[in-house]
Amino acid sequence: MLRIMVGGQIDKAEIAALVEKYGNGQVSIEVKGDLDAAMAMQAGQADYYIGACNTGGGGALAMALALLGHDKCVTLSMPSSMMSEEEIREQVRSGKIAFGFTAQDKEKIVPIVMDELLKLK
């Protein structure tokens, strides 16, 4: 069972629903504020962090970056760009554990991230 922490600033309930949908019954999900979610990750209470905001790297990922380090976090989309599916998959496979993106990309990004995370399980 993968433990997914949904943080970030916006659309947390919608992102949690997408994680549940694409988690195929193999995930537990907890929704928290960005600081609490990042602290829970740091304490080992979750395996992965997913969050969204309007820029993809600010409110979505700032606390995770501060507490987990840049090598564990990645911004998958920004207002003017989104990584390709293969780039997203590579980021997951490379050991990143915290993923930030813009809320408008959640329906494209969450299925890819979840598919790749379930392969790592």
From TrEMBL:
It holds the Pfam family DUF2620. InterPro entries: DUF2620 (IPR021238). This is DUF2620 family protein.
